[in-house]
Amino acid sequence: MEVACPVPLLMLAEKEGNEESREFFDLINGVTYTMNFPELVGKLCLGVGIPGWIFTADVKGNMNLFHLNSRSLIELPHVDTLDNFEYDYHIQYEYYVVKALLSSNPHTNDDYILMINQGVPRSLAYWKPGNTRFITVTHKGAYSDVTYHDGQFYGVNFLGNVVIFDFRGRGLERPIKRIVQGVPSEFICGMQLYIVHSLGELFVITRDGIENHPETNSYGVKEFIVSKVDVDNESYEDVDDLGNRALFLGFSASMAVEQYGCKANHIYFTDDCSTAYFSSVKGGGKDMGIYNLFEDTIEPHYTGESYHRFSPPIWIFNTPFSV
Fold it and tell me: What is the pLDDT of residues 239-254, one digit of tens each?
């Protein structure tokens, strides 16, 4: 997904003992802003691709959309209304949703769509204003990520297939759906996948290094591979030149950014290796940095520590806050 946005901010994790206060690191200017958000205490927070908005879920299974500037709150159906949800199987409600993506800004468009990726079985489901429950649109295959462009959602599963949901001009609950070959599955075993639509191009990105090393029990990015997918011809090609674009990946909506002082042809990433959080005393937040696609090197973007068991730092795009 591509967004015209003010500034990429890193929303840092909730701090033990100071839960109501949240810090936001301004990536471009190197400034940290602090604001009080009692509405976010103890909640999973996910970036949704629209400036200012985040998705939240709490320990009781309540899910909401929340706007950081206006503090507007939109209540969503409870997590146990999702198809195939079984509470006994999951540790806690707040772990369950792993991705959330808005089609447009709820402040300016009443006809927006929210697509989420639920933890197990990693199905995609959507909600529109007025609906009493989410509608599941994938029933086979585990999905890793989803992006949006011009009335269509594009999802990628862990076999490298791309699913396309066309909501344009549809009055029915079920969008038009088709599945195409994206990236061959033999190249992506054990990796995290992301999908981004930008400037008329569709990219599938693989992240190597999400699993614990069998000897050191540690994890961390080894390599990113960016593939441009042609859905009409069901073909792909690996690319290492994104032009003026930078990618933002992690535990939030995957984004392409073409301005605001970001380093072109770099990938800004945060820690979304949730299966490894449980082996770390501190939780998630270790695996963050800026990956250079030309040189295959990594440098830090935030040099401090910010860990959390289920809600580590995420990308948001927003105007800077008043201190």
Answer: 999 999 999 999 899 9
| Residue 73 bridge partners (DSSP) | 66
Query: Smallest Cα–Cα separation from 30: which of 316, 321, 310, 302?
Result: 302
Sign of the Cα pseudo-torsion (55, 57, 62, 66, in order): negative
Sign of CA dihedral 206, 212, 216, 220: positive
| Centroid of chain to Cα 130 | 24
- What is the Cα–Cα distance from 154 to 62, expressed in whole angstroms? 26
CA distances from 108 to 5, 112, 311 (A): 15, 9, 28
Running DSSP on this structure, what letter comes out for residue 241?
-
Beta-sheet strand order (sheet of 192-198): 192-198, 201-208, 223-230, 235-239
Contacts of 232 (CB under 8 A, 6+ apart): none
The pTM for the full model equals 0.93
- Alpha-carbon distance of 190 to 211, in angstroms, equals 7
Q: What is the mean pLDDT of the chain?
A: 88
